[in-house]
Amino acid sequence: MLKVGVLGAGHLGKIHLRLLNQSAKYELIGFYDPDEINAKKVADEFGYTSYENINALIDAVDVIDIVTPTLSHYNCAKKAIEKGKHIFIEKPITNTLEEAEELIELESKFKVKGQVGHVERFNPAFIAVNDSIQNPMFIETHRLAEFNPRGTDVPVVLDLMIHDIDAILSVVHSEVKLINASGVSVISKSPDIANARIEFENGCVANLTASRISLKNMRKSRFFQKDAYISVDFLEKKVEVVKMKDAPEVLGDFDMILQNAEGIKKQIYFENPEVEANNAILDELETFADAINNNTTPIVSLNQGTAALRVALQIIEAFEN
After folding, report:
1. pLDDT tens-digit profile of 112-139?
2. In CA terms, which of 96, 113, 169, 207 is 20 to 30 Å from 76?
3. From edge to edge, which strands make up the β-sheet containing 86-90?
């Protein structure tokens, strides 16, 4: 079992602590939170060991799980890596691109592994259709959330949209060609609503919308590719796959047929991939343990987390142009 420590015992940090404590792949050693009142409360309520300083916790473990505010990600990760510890780091990987790129260099130098917490990669609905998404040419995403003061210290792009950016980059195997975007600040000092259009070198276009002041929650993505339409509901854990194939010579009574202007007939049919229930956060943490134990590349590497951050920052930059 890998000895693990958690940095940060806020809302998400407490979830990580609970899951690591129940995981068969980790031994939870303890946590560090600079808020002494909160640290004592969490230790008293759940029985986890609270460390008085960050270095003592890092020294006591094999893996550091960083669930702190984004501004502190880099410093926490740097300290852990330089002591030879593997790091799991919540998204976004860091506050700046330069910080993220330095962590990649340190990861290589100290021969450790790092994974970024892009949890939607482990969403059972996305997993169910991942193999079916082949060379999509148009993608549309909507990630809408009711207002929550937690997270408003960063633009909605880094808070919400980055989930969809990462998912898109994982299925579109092409370089970004052009980004156009607009963002509006309604309640926060940074944009609360944003829309971005990403054009890729291979011709794929992705249209992303994110809002944190909506009346209802929505997390949907739609992928359009040759002869197929794939819809993923990340919130409801549901998928819809509609495909087309050449129409048979003899049509059945219930066959759904489309005919274009040239007279070519296509048959529409539906696939129903099984969506297997899981705990996405536990899965991302445990697959990281597997990557460490088997010396394989983590599912969401520091390189991939950096790629998502790079596009997110380009979108934010496009707001001003």
Report:
1. 999 999 999 999 999 999 999 999 999 9
2. 169
3. 26-32, 2-7, 63-66, 86-90, 114-117
CA 244, chain centre distance (Å): 30
| Amino acid in position 52 | E
Distances in whole angstroms, Cα of residue 280 to Cα of each of 93, 263, 274, 287: 18, 46, 16, 10
Measured torsion, CA atoms of residues 123, 91, 162, 291, in degrees rounded to the nearest 10: -50
Cis peptide leading into residue 92 (ω within 30°): yes
| Structural domains in the chain, sorted by start | 2-112 (3.40.50.720), 121-276+311-319 (3.30.360.10)
Phi, psi of 47 (to 5 degrees): 85, 10
At 192, which amino acid appears?
D
Q: Which of 301, 281, 280, 298 is nearest to 289 (CA)?
A: 298
Residue 286: pLDDT band by 50, 70, 90 thresholds?
very high
pTM beyond 0.90, yes or no = yes
Residue 206: φ, ψ to 5°: -120, 130
